[in-house]
Each structure stands twice: as C-alpha cells, then as structure tokens.
Amino acid sequence: MSTTALPEGAPAPASQVPKAPSQRKRRSKLRLRNTLMGWSFIAPNFVGFAVITLVPIIALFYYSCTKWGALGDAQWLGLDNFEKLFTRDPRFKTALWNTLYYTALHMPLTLAASLGLAVLLNRKLRGVAFFRTAAFFPYITSIVAIAIVWNLLLSPDYGPVNQILRFLGVDNPPGWTVSATWAMPAIILVGTWREMGYYMLLFLAGLQTIPPELYEAAKLDGAGAVKRFWHVTMPCLRPTTFFVTVMLTIGSMKVFDLVFVMTAGGPGRSTMVISQLIWQQAFVEGDYGYASAIAVVLFFLCLLFTIIQFMVNRRSNK
Amino acid sequence: MKKTSPIALLGVLAMALTMTACGGDGDGTSTSGASSTEATTEAPPTDTATAEETSDVPEETEPAEEPIVLSMSGWSLETTPEFQVLADAFHAANPNVTVELREYDPNDYETLMLADMSSGSATDIITIKQAKFTTQWAEGGQLMDISDIVSGLPANVSGAGSYTVSGVNYGVPYRQDSWVLFYNKDLFDQAGVATPDGTWTWDKYAEVAKELASKLDGVKGTYEHSWQSTLQGFAQAQTPGADLAGGQDYSYLKPYYERVLDLQDSGAQETYANITTNSLTYQANFGKQSAAMMAMGSWYVATLISQQASGDADTFNWGIAPVPQYDESTTGTDKVPVTFGDPTGLAINANIDPAKLDAAKAFLQFAASEEAGVALAGIGILSSVASDAVTEAYFAQSGIPTDDLSKFAIGTHETKPENPQSPYIAAIQSALGEAHTAIMSESSSIDDAIAMATETIQAELG
Amino acid sequence: MKRSLTPGRVGLYAGLILAAAFLLLPFFWMVSSSLKPDNDVFTIPVRWIPEVFRPSNYIDIWTKSDMGIWLKNTLILSVVVTALQLFTGSFAAYGFSRIRFPGRDALFLAYLGTLAVPWQAYMIPQYKMMAKVMPNGGDSLLSIIVLQAFGAFGVFLMKQFYESIPEELSESARIDGLSEYGIYRRIMLPLSVPAIASLGLLTFVNTWNDFLGPRLYLRTRPNFTIQVGLKVFQADATQGSQFGLLFAGSVISVLPIAIIFMLGQRYFVEGIATSGMKG
Predict the structure, then answer these.
(1) Nearest one of B28, C77, C170, B227 to A264, comparing CA atoms
(2) Is B226 inside any structural domain?
(3) Which of B226, B284, B327, C127 is the most buried (most CB within 10 A)?
C-alpha cells in the first residue's frame, strides 16, 4: 500500500489517521463523507440489484422453511425440508456428489485451458482475430446444437471419437453419454470445450494490464519463456485468475443447462446435479419449498468456497 | 482509444436510453398480452386477464346477451388448430361468447402456467396438457371444483378420472389419445410377413420384429422411441395387479424390459444408445421407412398424414393395429385390447370473474360433446367422446387407412391413464424415469434399477 | 516486422487451424442441418453434407416467422443491457475497490452470494413481484432490461480489474485536485478499456443468447427475442419439429454476435491498458 500523505476525503485506513481528540470529529466526518461517496458509486447498481435480485432471494430463504407449491399460501415447516434433504433423500446425496465431481474437474481444466488459449492468442499473429473468434464460438453456438453434435461425436457405435479410439486399438471404447461411468467425464470435457473461450476473454483482458517493460526486464535477466510465464505473467494476472477461479467455481456448482441438454441427468441419475434437482423439485414435482431448501444449501456451499478462495487470495497477496 | 472510450460509452448509453424510452412507451401504453395468431399485428386483442380486473365495472344485472370474452390457454397455435376449432364451434353456437386463445410454449407450458397462476394472470379456461399437474394446481387453489358438470357428462366421455383429486373433479377431457401400433404395409409385404391381425401378444410382436429385421435389408423390425412411456406405460396398463401409485412393487416392469433389451441386442430395433446420442426422431424413423412397425400415440396419425402429403415422409401404405397385449385374454377383435394414454382436458380458473362462470362451464360441456368431437375429428384429433359419428368423421380424413383393423384399433380399446391421480405421481414418474434410462442404456441391471427407484419412491411417500 | 516461414510457425498454424475446425464443428453441423428437410436432420450415421439441399429454409424463416422483429428486439435488449451493466457495474466497482466505508465488504459478499443461487430457484417469487409492477404484466422488453442490467457479475469483474491498477495513480490525481468522480471518469475508465471490452462482449452475448428469462416474461410474439422466437419451430412430443427452420434461425442468430466479437476483440492488444500507466 502507498505511504503518500492522504488528502482530505481520500480513503484512509483507520490506523493512519492520528487519533488526537481534536481530530476525532474530523475523522467521523471523513468517514461519513466516505460512506456517502461510496454509496453514491454503488447506488445506481445496488438499487436495481436489491429490488430485482436480493428481495426474491430473501424470499427464497423463507420458502425453504415452508411447504409451498408456488401457488397459494406457504405453510411453515421449520427445518423439516432440511431434515429430509440430509437424511431421507437419496437423490440429494447423488446430486451433491455429482456436482462436486463436476466442479473438481471442470474448474481446474477450464482454468488451465482458458489461460493457455489467452497466452497463445495474445500475440501479434496473422489471423488472430479469426482464431480468437473460433475459440469463443462454442460459447455463442446454440447449446442445443452443441449437445446434439457432441452426442453424435461421442455416440458409442457410430461416433467418430470411438471410431478413432478403435482405430488406435482400444477394443472397448467408453459408452460416453449413455454410460453411467463415462457420462460425467463427457459432460466435463464438453463443458470445458464450451467455456474456455469465455474465460479466455477475461484472461486476455487481464494480460493487457501487464507492462511490457516487465517482460523486457525479465528477458534481459535471461529468463526463458517458461520462467517469464511463472514469474511475470502469473503474478500480474492474479486479480484476473482470482476472479476466474471464483466465477468458475460458482458456475460449476450451478451447472444446469449443459447437463440438461446432454443427458438430462442420466443414465439413471449418474449425471444429476444440484441445479437440476432444484428444477425438478420445483417445476416437475411441484415442491417449491423443498427446491428452495436445496438452493439454500447450494448457496452456503458456494459461499464457503468463495470465502476460502478470498482467504487464500489475501494470504498470497501478502 | 483510451480517450474516446468513455465518450463512446456515453454515446451508447444515450442511444440505449432513447431506445428504452421508445420500447417503454410502446409496451406501457398497449394493454396487449393475449396472444393472437396474427403475430405481426400492431395491437393484439385486449388481454382478458387484465381486462378482468379493470373493465368489468358494469353492473351484473345486464341481460345475458351481453358479450362475454373467455380467455383460454393453448400452445403452438399454428400447428395445433384444435383450440381454435373448439373456440369457433362454440362461438357459432353461442354468438355472445368469444373464446380468445393465449399461446404458450408447448415445452415449457406448465412452468409458464405456474408463473401466470402465481401472479394471478392465468387464463379463464386452463388447458391441462399433462394430467399429472392437476393435483399441484388444484391444491394450490387455482382450479375450480366443477364436479357438477363432470358428473353430468355423458357416459361415452372417457378420461375425466384423470382430473379427480380427493374425490373432487377439476377437469373435463376433450381429447383422448391412446397408444396404437403403426405398421408399414409395404415393408411387411416386401418381407413376406403377415400384417398384424389384432391377435398379437408382445411375444408374438417380438418374434415378428426379428423376422422382419432378418428379411429386410437395412430396415429395423420395429422402432421404440426412447421415452419411458413406450415401456412403462404398457407394463402398467396391461399387467394384472400393477400399481403405479402404490409405491411398493415395480417388478411388473421386468418382463417388458427383458423383451426390449433382447430386441435391441438382436438388432431387431434401434438401440436406446443410438436413439439418444443421434437424437433420432420417431417421425423420421417411421416416416422415412427405417422401421416396419412402431408403437406410438394416436396423435401420430395426423402428423403422418400431413408429412406424407408434404413430402417430409415417404409415400407408403400403412395401417393401425391394436397394441400387442400382455396375454391372450385380451387379444382378438372380439375382445377389448388394453392400452394407455392420458386425456387432454380443460379446467376453469378458480379466480374467474363470476359473471363469466356460466359461459365457461358451458364451454367445457361443449368441448366434451359429440358435436365438438366431430369437429375435432375433422382435423385429426381424437375426441374424448366415443361415438360412431366421431369415428366416422375421423376416418373421413384423406390419407388415413380405412381397413377394418385400423378402425377397430382407433375405436375399440380400454385406455388406462398413464398418470393416475396421486399427489406423488410426478415424483414416482421421475424415479421410474431414472430407472428407464439406467436399464435402457444397459448401465444398470433391471433388478438394481427397479430397486433403486423403489427406494427413492418409498422415501418420497414417507 | 517481417517473419520468415519457419517449420515452427507452420506447425503452429496447422495446430491452430485444426483446433479452430474442432471448435467450429457444431456450427458447421448447424449450417448443414439448416439446409436439410426436417426428417433428414437426424440420421444414423450422421450426414455432414445434406443429401437433399433445401436452401429455401433461409427464405421461409423470414416469411413464416417474425425474425426481423425478433432480431430487432434482441438487439435493443443487448445494447441497453450492456450499456447499463457497463455503467452501473464499473461505477459500483469503483466504490467497492477504491473507497473504504463501513459495511462495504459485507455488502460485496452479499453481491457475490446472489451469484450462487440458481435463477430457477427464485424466478417465481421474482416473477410474482415483476408481473405486478412491470408494464403489460411483465410481458415487455423492459422486464428483461431490469432483470439483466444490475447483475453482480459486472461489479465483481470491474472491481478485480481496478485492483490491478496501481493506487498511486489515483493518489496523484487526488493531489491534482480531481474528485473521486473525476478519477473514475478520467483515470480508471480509460485504463480499464480491456475490462470494459470483455465485460461488454460477455454481457452482450449473454443477453443475446439468454433464453430462460425472456421465455418466462415475453409471451406475445411481437415481444419475443430471437432465442424465444426460434422455439416456435420446436414442437412438443406429439408433433414434428421444424428442424430445418430452427437451425436456419440459429445460424442467423449466431452471425451478429460473431461479427461483434470480431470487432470487439481488437481491444485486446498488448499495452493498450498499460500505456496510460507510464505517465
């Protein structure tokens, strides 16, 4: 942090302000001013955010403690929904496990792939605009078409992927989306394939903040490309990496569309994830209260992961 | 660049604001909301749901001839003319009542309907697309008790039981599809195999499917779509003692699955894995003659006729037979074959304007009348009313097979509901749906999959 | 700068072209399917080149639907939502990253927390509320604008980016007498062009392709967006879907965002952000 003297009205860490009694009044005035100033920046977004998102989410917490079919009056249940969730619902356990499985693999894979793509495509290269657009294409192509095509490619009997595997001498290639064992890996791969261009864009933006002088200095010191990546690129990208990690984790925990269109949770319930269970409870089985309870559990799980990531990030920043 | 970007940003913002203003005005001043088939008209007809609250100020002492507008929910209006046919026919008989349609997305129908109900903007007449949602809507206080008109329906109307929750009737069925066996006469002739004669059990069907596959090059004996219904619907309807809602024993599914897995393995029918990973459609499979037989709902009759006429399907001779039976006790044209199917029905919004209630009830009664049945049959829709006049009108469609067995298959059957009313029916079907995909993909044994489903269902039933 | 054609470079290009083909495969399939009759779209094995060409799908889609109106609606939504998201997001992010005040971090955590709740879990309570206050019972583009414009995503993204800009820059500006608004406007915004570009592109694309929200709110055809409109060609299980038209429409709907992306990605040029920091 900077040590320059702070002018009046500037954000000042409390410890830096002298604690003389005569200045206490000034300090609280400053604090009020900062608060007003801060809120003036946040307000345009916050007003919309609070009304549109925060209020319904608070309602969701209430509904999680009720029996409610989205129609009529909700009936207060206390913690019954949560009790059922943790003790009596075999589907929740599977969905939770599947979601963690997806997140644990999809998050690091996508992080690595998108970072790699960004570094590869952050150079002066003929046709770089085309290649960047190609990398982003899976994200803009209709997800229905993606599910159809990937299912085709991975089709156990006629799919090109298994044809290649057989050609390479694999006698019993995986059944992919129609196999309880392989459906999740298939979805994870397609998920990474689809989203790496999206996160690449964020990394590309982050890469622009790295002063070229740093690379030049590293080159003068005789650092090779690998060394420059680890000692210049990675440290400078930390804010972006942190953002991508948090967003990817939350996004993976909430995964829904892709699973829904690719396997609809099957075969059996081998790819059923939490968000899908929420959807099914609310809109197929008509138990909105129970669906809300599942959403609340998901909320706390994501919050836990996010707080851990914040703590790790803060420590490595020091 | 760095200097222009904030300005560019402001420019975009300014442009945006002008656009919002325009958009806002246009949306704000019009009171539209009702869907119309003329999608491009500038001012769609007044939304009856909002009109309900505002424009019904006039005293209710007006004579009965005062025009009444009922709103009704429907879907895919261009390709599903049944709603308009009912509305027009009713209007012709009751000129003071107009039924206006509001269009929904067929694949998200229940979700959108739920949203409308929750915000109090659902239509006066609510079409029940899937019977299994009746309990949820009725218990949520959205459907009106219409036991009085349901008990007065003629005896030849079937399917009302699908809308009965705790002894109260909430819906009138106007349409009743049931599952039949479609077969391609040309392919049977080419293979030299005798066409169905109404005496088939499932074992006989399997035998014929294998024979067809062996005699026809590149054509499967039969096609069974990837849905849960194609197996479980029959098993549940035909097996003596099968109790779907009971939650105790689902072993009755096993023989049906064993037969189908054997057909898959022998190559007599396309595998589940190929159907799902290649997104195969049943319309293309039967219509483009990739399979010689197919069990499917009677709704496919109208689709096949229109696809043959438009060239989307090949031109070939086909017929309709009763679905194969569990055993010989129900086979033969002197018996009544057992099949399954859910009706499509109409319900009345519990919050309907009382001034419109009588008209709404009259419309529901009309929808389940022979007159409406004949009108529906004219566009290829099977009414819930079983009568000679309806059957005759149905077989008057051009392009429909008119042999005796086809008429028997359409006209004579015991149709059991696929989703008997139970508060747990949706949960039960979800669990059995998981079992279906597990078994059909051969990622789980039949016994294991059924055991897992039973466990889930019992946890749900508490 | 002249580059000679080294084997390494040839290898790089060959790899990139192969990868691009792999990434564009579903799009290619979509184009191929959009030129087929409906019942030819799904076959075993898949046919990548249509057997029967039906280019008329691209004419029919304009006459059989309101593609023009839907594209216009989608464009209005995407532009307005992007502009609002950029403005409110970057503005709020400045408050979160550069001004210290009590309750700030808790508030930010609340923002992040909402990202963790799947929309379908609270869409009904939200719809109940919106249907009451929005014009036309919610069936209006305004609903979607309000729904999309104030998300936490943009705030978080911009906040992270601001934190990579050295604090010293704003401090020297403060000494020069610039107000906080002035710092935001004259220092932070110009420096965050790549972040603005990526947030803008992502918001635009997400709004363009959003389906669930518009599906729930937009009920009448003149109000449809392209993604909702295309569902008209998708029938329920009892009828045949018009796949040829569906995929022709999907191809048409992808092209504008591909072009916008091509144009937008040029903001990611080395040094564009850092050049301002030298001074």
Answers:
(1) B227
(2) yes
(3) C127
User: To the nearest whole number, what is the mean pLDDT of chain A?
Assistant: 87
**Whether the Cβ atoms of residue B385 and residue B368 lie closer than 8 Å to each other:** yes
- Asked whether the beta carbons of residue B312 and residue C240 sit closer than 8 angstroms, the reply is yes
Judged by CB atoms closer than 8 Å, whether chains meet at C95 and A12 is answered as no
Residue A3 within any structural domain of the chain: no
- Strand-pair category, B338-340 with B293-297: unpaired
The answer to whether A256 and A272 have CB atoms below 8 angstroms apart is no
Number of structural domains chain A divides into = 2
Q: Is residue B40 part of a domain?
A: no
CATH for A276: 1.10.3720.10
Same domain, B246 and B360: no
Residues A35 and A105 occupy one common structural domain: no
- A139 occurs within a structural domain: yes
Tell me the CA distances in angstroms from B387 to A227, B299, B339, B370, B371, one per residue in order: 84, 18, 19, 7, 11
Regarding whether B303 and B161 lie in a shared domain, the answer is: no
B23/C contact by beta carbon, under 8 A: yes
Domain assignment of residue B9, yes or no = no
Helix (H/G/I), strand (E/B), else coil: A66: strand
Q: Which of B113, B144, B277 to mutate to test the interface with A (most CBs of A within 10 A)?
A: B277
Distance of residue A194 Cα from the nearest chain C Cα, in angstroms: 9
Instruction: Determine, yes or no, domain membership for B46.
Output: no
Q: Provide the pLDDT confidence category of residue B6 given band limits of 50, 70 and 90.
A: very low
Question: Facing residues of A67 across strands?
Answer: A75
Determine the Cα–Cα distance for residues A280 and C98; give it in Å rounded to an integer: 43
Tell whether A72 lies on the interface with B, counting CB pairs under 8 A: yes
Domain containing A26 equals 21-75
Query: Is the minimum CB–CB distance between A269 and chain B shorter than 8 Å?
Result: yes
Q: What is the pTM of this model?
A: 0.86
* pLDDT beyond 70 at B15: no
In degrees, rounded to 5, the angle at the alpha carbon of residue B414 between the alpha carbons of residues B409 and B415 is 95
Residue type, C32: S
C45 upstream amide cis, omega within 30 of 0: yes
Classify residue B447 as exposed, middle or buried by CB count within 10 Å of its CB (0-12, 13-18, 19+).
Answer: exposed
What is the torsional sign of CA A18, A22, A24, A29?
A: negative
The least confident of A152-161, B170-179, C267-276 is C267-276
Helix or strand (DSSP H, E) at C21: helix C7-34
Q: How far apart are CA C136 and CA C120, in angstroms?
A: 22
> What domain count does chain B have?
2
Beta strands of B242-309 (E only): which ranges?
A: 293-297
Cα separations (Å) of B160 from A226, B73, B345, B361, C59? 73, 19, 8, 15, 45
Secondary structure (3-state) at C2: coil
Q: At what angle are helices C104-115 and A238-253 packed, to 10 degrees?
A: 50
Q: What average pLDDT score do residues C73-99 get?
A: 93
Structure tokens at B310: 């438009």
Q: What's the order of all strands across the beta sheet hosting B125-128?
A: B97-104, B68-75, B125-128, B343-348, B172-176
Give residue-wise pLDDT tens across range A41-53: 988 889 989 889 9
| Pair A214, A116 in one domain | yes
Is the predicted pLDDT of residue B37 greater than 90, yes or no? Answer: no
Subunits with 3+ C-beta pairs closer than 8 A to A: B, C
Chosen from A45, A114, A122, A233 to mutate, greatest number of chain C CBs within 10 A: A45
Same domain, B72 and B101: yes
Q: Helix A55-63 to helix C119-133 angle, to the nearest 10 degrees?
A: 120
Q: Which two tokens stand for residue B7?
A: 């300005």
Would strands B343-348 and B125-128 be described as parallel, antiparallel, or unpaired? antiparallel
Domain residues for B288?
A: 179-340+410-461
- pLDDT tens-digit profile of C175-214? 888 888 888 888 888 888 888 988 999 999 999 999 989 9
